[in-house]
Design a protein that fits this description.
The protein is an alpha+beta fold and 95 residues long. The chain contains 3 helices and 5 strands.
Length: 95
């Protein structure tokens, strides 16, 4: 079963700003989710209900959604590993 992956504006802009090799790796990871070759890891604690994808020193935060066409993930945030969780929790007001 194919899983649909959509991106919010922030992760889309973030990916576009990355160097070509990093951008390619991020796109390949999203494609791997779409084709079922990989599955995002669930987050716990304050971020329960969200999932993460790890690509080198980058992290993408996703939210699972159900649709008539089947399951999908919506990428809600992307950033470098050292800042992603702090920034995301501040943005969604969890701290």
């Amino acid at each position: 079963m194919k899983i649909r992956v959509t991106l919010a504006d922030q992760p889309l802009r973030f990916i576009r700003r990355q160097p070509p090799d990093s951008r390619r790796a991020l796109h390949q990871m999203l494609h791997a989710v779409e084709t079922g070759k990989t599955f995002p890891e669930p987050l716990t604690g304050e971020l329960d209900g969200f999932y993460k994808l790890k690509v080198s020193s980058y992290r993408m935060i996703l939210k699972a959604e159900t649709a008539e066409a089947g399951p999908r993930f919506h990428v809600v945030f992307a950033e470098r590993r050292d800042a992603v969780y702090v920034l995301f929790t501040e943005i969604v007001g969890l701290e």
